[in-house]
Amino acid sequence: MAVSEADWRQALSLPLFAGLSIEERERLRALAQSLLAGKTLSGAGGLEPNGRIGALIAVQAALPILNLDTARYGRWSEIIVYPGEFVPEREEMDEAGVVHRVRQPLSGEAWEGGPLVLSWCDVEQSGRCDGYNVVIHEFAHKLDMMNGEVDGLPSLPAEMGRQAWAAAFTAAYADFCRRVDAGEATRIDPYASESPAEFFAVLSEYFFEWPEPLHEAYPAVYEQMRRFYRQDTLARLKGQAHDLAAPR
Predict the structure, then answer these.
(1) 244 confidence band (pLDDT: 50, 70, 90)
(2) Count of beta carbons in the 10 Å neighbourhood of residue 160
(3) Would you say 238 and 245 are in contact if contact means Cβ atoms under 8 Å apart?
(4) Where exactly are the structural domains of the chain?
(5) Strand pairing of 116-119 and 108-110?
(6) How many CA atoms lie within 13 A of 57 on its CB side?
(7) In contact, 198 and 191? CB cutoff 8 Å
(8) Is the pTM of this model over 0.85?
């Protein structure tokens, strides 16, 4: 896929990348190019991938591994892009043991060992520093999948301990679920209460897009994510204007 210089410049002009140094921007672009070289970008629903689409997805996907490496995302090979929300059909069993066919619109989906699926409309809404980023969300699931079960505990570097991570995330998740169940208004998207895996993915969005609410509500979680991603986004994005997070 041909990505022009204008495509790269436009993608890197997102508010998401404010505060990155020249060296970091060059490294981000190199990582994005490596991602595009190693993944097949396929269109679905009538969408034809082009350089703009590839650049915008790749630079946002590269940000979480800016100080890590592309091997963190695993050996899967395809990114599928729909024009807008897509509606997969799957079977679910209820408590009575009855199987139902379920069709639910999605903005993104990550398959363990398989493709990552995105809505282009939602990709275009990402990167604005408002707490919403479908690319980072789905690629966070890929990080979570690297060590087996998708449970909100990715493979940690040697200098980090599982006990400290689990203590921070378990306490924060329990508190957040309590607040959502009580109907309390939260600055973090309530979707994070769906499961520990979604909690990690949504909080990864906030860590990179809008870290203030995360740091304010759960500073211990922010510190674990700062050490995991090896980035201090709170310091880097300080002073950026923010809007309310977009609904999912």
Answers:
(1) very low
(2) 13
(3) no
(4) 5-236
(5) antiparallel
(6) 31
(7) yes
(8) yes
Distance, in Å, from the CA atom of 248 to the CA atom of 134, rounded to the nearest integer, reads 9
**The residue type at 236:** R
Residues belonging to the chain: 248
Tell me the per-residue pLDDT of 32-65, one tens digit each, with 9 for 90 and over. 999 999 999 999 999 999 999 999 999 999 999 9
* HEC secondary structure over the chain: CCCCHHHHHHHHCCHHHCCCCHHHHHHHHHHHHHHHHHCEEEECCCCCCCHHHHHHHHHHHHHHHCCCCHHHHCCCCEEEEECCCECCEEEEECCCCCEEEEECCECEEECCCCCEEEEHHHHHCCCCCCCCCHHHHHHHHHHHHCCCCCCCCCCCCCCCCHHHHHHHHHHHHHHHHHHHHCCCCCCCCHHHHHCHHHHHHHHHHHHHHCHHHHHHHCHHHHHHHHHHHCCCHHHHCCCCCCCCCCCC
Token pair for 115: 């493709």
pLDDT-derived band at 193, boundaries 50, 70, 90:
very high
Question: pLDDT tier at 173 (50, 70, 90 boundaries)?
Answer: very high
State the sign of the Cα–Cα–Cα–Cα dihedral 112, 116, 122, 124.
positive
Per CATH, the architecture of 5-236 is what?
3-Layer(aba) Sandwich (3.40)
